[in-house]
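In response to the reviewer comment on reproducibility (Comment 2.3), we provide here a single inverse folding case reported in full, input and output, so that an independent group could reproduce the run without further information from us. The structure tokens appear first.
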């Protein structure tokens, strides 16, 4: 069973930066795709960024050029560097492992 532990959320002013981390632990037999999803109050959970085991990435249009997803396979950890944050980036950010395992979420609040 895979467990995910997220960290790095918080309160930041518009234009600022945050870095989220998600560490996977447990038993798994291959390097899976990992991703970050965002859920704003009253909204569905949407994809922010995803990275394959080989390092291929994909981003939501709203974050392209501002967010960067990366991973360290030796540490089973995925990161989300968020720059030029906007109030509309506010929400709970969830890490996902292999499409089926979710972290507990970390809150990001961007004030205007």
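Designed residues, in position order:
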């Amino acid at each position: 069973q895979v467990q995910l532990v997220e960290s790095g959320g918080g309160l930041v002013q518009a234009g600022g930066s945050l870095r989220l981390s998600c560490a996977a632990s447990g038993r798994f037999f291959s390097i899976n795709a990992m991703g970050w999803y965002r859920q704003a109050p009253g909204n569905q959970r949407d994809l922010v960024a995803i990275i394959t085991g080989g390092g291929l990435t994909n981003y939501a249009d709203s974050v392209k050029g501002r967010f960067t997803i990366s991973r360290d396979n030796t540490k089973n950890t995925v990161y989300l560097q968020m720059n030029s944050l906007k109030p509309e980036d506010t929400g709970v950010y969830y890490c996902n492992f292999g499409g089926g395992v979710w972290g507990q979420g970390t809150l990001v609040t961007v004030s205007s």
